[in-house]
Amino acid sequence: MGRKSLKEDQQKKIIEAFYEIAKREGIENISFGKIAKELDMHPSLVVHYFSTKEELLLGLIDFIIAGYQNIYLAEPEHVDSLNRLIDVLNNIFSRKWNNYIDDSIFYNCFALIFRNKLIKQQFQELHLLLRQWLENLIQACVDQQLIVCENPAQTADLIFVISDGAYYFLSMIEDPDLYQEHMERYREAAFKLLHLENALQ
């Protein structure tokens, strides 16, 4: 038990160092030596926990998944289902994504899906998880007759299609006012899918 805990702790530190270097220099410029230097440890120790860069990248994607889960888990558990859903929708269409995981890291990793089947599978699982978490929130509201939604799974998927397209486009907009104007438009479209226009603030 102790050995497993130590291993997980060391792997977490290595992944966090990997993430910080990637933010500064980009994923393509990272080496085991740079990670070791960042952590003041011998490179062989990094290799002991992650034998290849692919393993490091898969660990980083797990780190991204854990970060994005905060969009759903950050709200107090005592909040009722409808307000929890509204909070999550507001989080999805906000800058909170970038607070949890740097956009440049996400897109840097995402580009690798075209060259690496394992990374592609990890990203597919990430997107399915995000949709499943939202679907569960929508279904809970439907079950409690708080909203009307004929197909929670399809609706969750459409909301993320809007979100994914929004962030891809918004990443190219420098003007903060224009950014916010577009974001509000996309957020409103998501709320309308759930007939929650009255909950828009």
Helix/strand layout:
Blueprint: H1 2-25, H2 32-39, H3 43-49, H4 53-73, H5 81-92, H6 96-100, H7 103-110, H8 117-143, H9 152-170, H10 176-193
Helix pairs in contact: 1-2, 1-4, 2-3, 4-8, 5-8, 8-9, 9-10
Shape: elongated
Helix content: over 70%
What is the string of helix and strand elements?
HHHHHHHHHH
Count of beta strands: 0
Strand residues, percent: under 5%
Main beta sheet strand tally, sense and closure: none
* Unreliable sequence segments: none
Structural category is mainly alpha
Distance between the termini: 49 Å
Count up the helices: 10
Report Rg: 19 Å
Residue-averaged pLDDT? 88
Keywords: DNA-binding, Repressor, Transcription, Transcription regulation
DNA-binding region: 31-50
Protein name: Biofilm operon icaADBC HTH-type negative transcriptional regulator IcaR
Domain HTH tetR-type: 8-68
Q: How would you explain this protein's 3D organization?
A:
- The protein has helices at residues 2-25, 32-39, 43-49, 53-73, 81-92, 96-100, 103-110, 117-143, 152-170, 176-193.
- It has ten helices and no strands.
- The mean pLDDT is 88.
- The longest helix is centred in the middle third of the chain and has 27 residues, at 117-143.
- It is 74% helix and 0% strand.
- The termini are far apart.
- The protein is elongated.
- By secondary structure, it is an all-alpha fold.
Please give a quick description of this structure:
The protein is mainly alpha-helical.
